[in-house]
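Take a careful look at the protein record below. Let me know whether the structure tokens fit the sequence:
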Amino acid sequence: MVQAIDVRLDDGRVLRAYDSGADATSRADAASGADAAAGPVLVWHHGSPQTGAPLEPVLAAAAARGIRVLSYGRPSYGGSSPRPGRDVASAAADVAAVADAFGVERFAAMGASGGGPHALAGAALLPDRVTAIVTLAGLAPYTDAFDWFAGMRSPGGLRAAMRSREERARYAETEEFDPEQFLPADWAALEGNWASLDADVGRSEAFGPGGLIDDDVAFASPWGFELEAIRPPVLLVQGEHDRVVPAKHASWMLSRIRRAQLWMRLDDGHVSVLDVVPDAMDWLLQRG
């Protein structure tokens, strides 16, 4: 059973956080007699927009492997307080606070879509605590080394975010989802294994657009760390036909992160690529 708590920070903010520890412990004990609470821990970084609650396929794959899952809502998502002016790097301190609240010292991290950059922040800024990282369809930092927007079906929100938060907020007032961002394989995933993702996106609407607006501004601004500073091993997983985050983002990051590998999924888009989560967890387990 997943436990939800509010983690209170020194600056007065609250982060809504989740722990699957009890469920992971019971399954691992049944399998091997081991204490999963002292075993592998994975911090899941949610996409944009979601609530931060861990998704059913993530929990199922983790429980089958005796992995304890922690997750949390980034500022303005799912009951977490806003953090005006946040950058991507600020996620490192937040995730450290969440891990501390649950008594966890070292952990792996996995981030999907908008969660990918935030998982990398922990890798860069918490190198003694983060063992390894997986990003799934994650954005690269903005750069003029390649056309960052090329291949994005609907880049309007990110283009507005580059100008200012105010411009991004105005864009949100009339923003509409473009279904052509997703491949048939993505829609099949949302109707099948990843139906809980679709439901969680719907639940996130109750908390307003602030989290997504601030995410986009953070993505399109300096992140607060350099990819070259990342020391733990990184697995980049990317759908070759992704129309939300184009494949070039992953290949460019591969050239910048010292200990990176790339799994290019030839038939996947932005959502269907998530089917690799169980294999990605095995990759993390092999790295400590």
Observations:
- The chain has one domain: 3-285.
